[in-house]
Amino acid sequence: MSVVKLSKETLDILKNYATINTNILIKEGNAISTMAINKSILAEAKGLKDEFPSEFPVYNLVELLSVISLFKEPALDFNGKLLTVQEASGKGMKIKYMASSKEILVYPQKDVKEPKYEVDIEFTSELLENLMKSAAVINGPDIQVVGDATGIVVKATDKKVPTSNDVIIEISDEPQDTNFTFNFRTENIKLIPGNYNLKISSKLLSKFTNTDKDGLVWFVPCESDSVYG
Q: Which pTM value belongs to this model?
């Protein structure tokens, strides 16, 4: 069957992916992934409720999502290079949407080779929401995860300005054997709301895993001025 009625879960993930890259290569099966144009951020979602019947390259995901939003109960009929969006009832308006050329898209073509992770912490949905909201309020372009003998804190700040306003949230009071400061660009933290496990490697790669739903992962780079040890 070529018709797909997208669940809210899949739509929410696609909306999130559109903030990372407006290109997406939808592949056959129940998994989707995306990669930032500069090939830094990579996100993948496996084990979706929805099954895509065939590959479909999309150049402008924001536009496609806007098309889908025009329908109360959208149904997507995939037929080669043509996608027809209509009401699930089959009545009323239909919109025909053409596939892009796959060759002009930026998309993940291989799995991430994961390094050893030295830091492993939990982010509650409340903590994540507070962090991102407060970073926006103080116009903090940087997120820092800092560990030392007093424990681990996460900060929203402007690391280039010593007198900047800082938001500091305690993650753990457990002393760390190795001091570290991992820096992230706030703009690179593009996650759907939820609870997360965060693993960080001294190789400057982090892995955000959504713990509410299996199969949702975001790989985000640490900045080159991060320090471990």
A: 0.93
